[in-house]
């Protein structure tokens, strides 16, 4: 059942999330196609925008949040969701749409590689949308300017770098410390050959301790003789 609400047509639901199409879709299709009749171009552009928003929705669900609706406009789309997301999760969700577009780009190029260039005008227009229009939208979306995805996507690099530094600097686990202690008790051959000073060296070499004791006794006798 199709429902009209605030300029949207609700055409279906997926796992509780409404798929809504805005009345501006025909206007956007005409503008992006240069005001010409190009149904294949329109369908490919609509599919590209929809897949972008589905990419956001997929990452939202990966983190256990709720997708409310997927809205497609004539000039873009919007994935509405709710949940107490961390800054890292919000940044990852922002990347979801671009990664979905990148998947379309890779699949398109692989099909061209194995099946050859398009042989009809309709297929050529679809390839154009999934390649050049796709790259244009990816570039625009990654600009660090609200409300574009890049405003929230790029901080993910900092979150990943900070997480890597934390893993490198965190204390070793109890098992690792125990293993290190065991290694210290049994000296390796290379460590046994290294010279030691103080009581530890005397304990490891009793003959040296005995020699030092005799030298001390002789020195004492010499002082008493003076």
Protein described:
- It is a single chain.
- The chain is an alpha+beta fold and 226 residues long.
- The chain has a domain at 3-153.
- Helices cover 63% and strands 14% of the residues.
- It has helices at residues 25-32, 39-62, 87-115, 121-141, 150-153, 155-169, 174-185, 189-192, 199-204, 206-225, and strands at residues 3-5, 8-14, 17-22, 66-73, 76-82.
- Strands 1-2-3-4-5 form a 5-stranded mixed sheet, with helices on one face.
- Strand 4 and strand 5 form a beta hairpin.
- Helix 2 (39-62) crosses helix 3, helix 2 packs across helix 4 and helix 3 (87-115) runs antiparallel to helix 4.
- The longest helix is centred in the middle third of the chain and has 29 residues, at 87-115.
- It is elongated, with a radius of gyration of 35 Å.
- Residues 183-204 have low confidence and may be disordered.
Features:
226 residues; alpha+beta; 5-stranded mixed sheet; 5 strands; 63% helix; 14% strand
Write a brief caption for the model.
This protein is α+β, with helices and mostly antiparallel strands.
């Amino acid at each position: 059942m199709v429902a009209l609400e605030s300029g949207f047509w609700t055409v279906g639901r997926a796992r509780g999330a409404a798929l809504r199409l805005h009345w501006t879709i025909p206007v956007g299709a005409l503008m992006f196609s240069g005001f010409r009749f190009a149904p294949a171009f329109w369908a490919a552009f609509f599919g590209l925008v929809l897949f972008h928003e589905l990419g956001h929705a997929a990452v939202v669900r990966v983190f256990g949040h709720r997708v409310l609706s997927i809205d497609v406009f004539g000039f873009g789309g919007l994935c509405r969701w709710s949940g107490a997301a961390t800054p890292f999760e919000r940044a990852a969700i922002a990347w979801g749409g671009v990664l979905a577009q990148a998947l379309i780009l890779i699949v398109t190029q692989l099909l061209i590689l194995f099946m050859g260039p398009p042989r009809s005008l309709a297929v050529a227009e679809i390839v154009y949308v999934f390649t050049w229009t796709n790259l244009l939208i990816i570039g625009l979306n990654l600009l660090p300017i609200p409300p574009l995805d890049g405003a929230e996507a790029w901080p993910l690099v900092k979150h990943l770098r900070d997480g890597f530094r934390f893993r490198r600097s965190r204390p070793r686990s109890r098992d690792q410390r125990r293993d290190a202690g065991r290694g210290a008790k049994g000296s390796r051959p290379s460590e046994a050959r290294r010279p030691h000073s103080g009581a530890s060296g005397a304990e490891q070499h009793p003959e040296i301790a005995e020699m030092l004791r005799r030298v001390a006794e002789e020195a004492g006798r010499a002082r008493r003789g003076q």
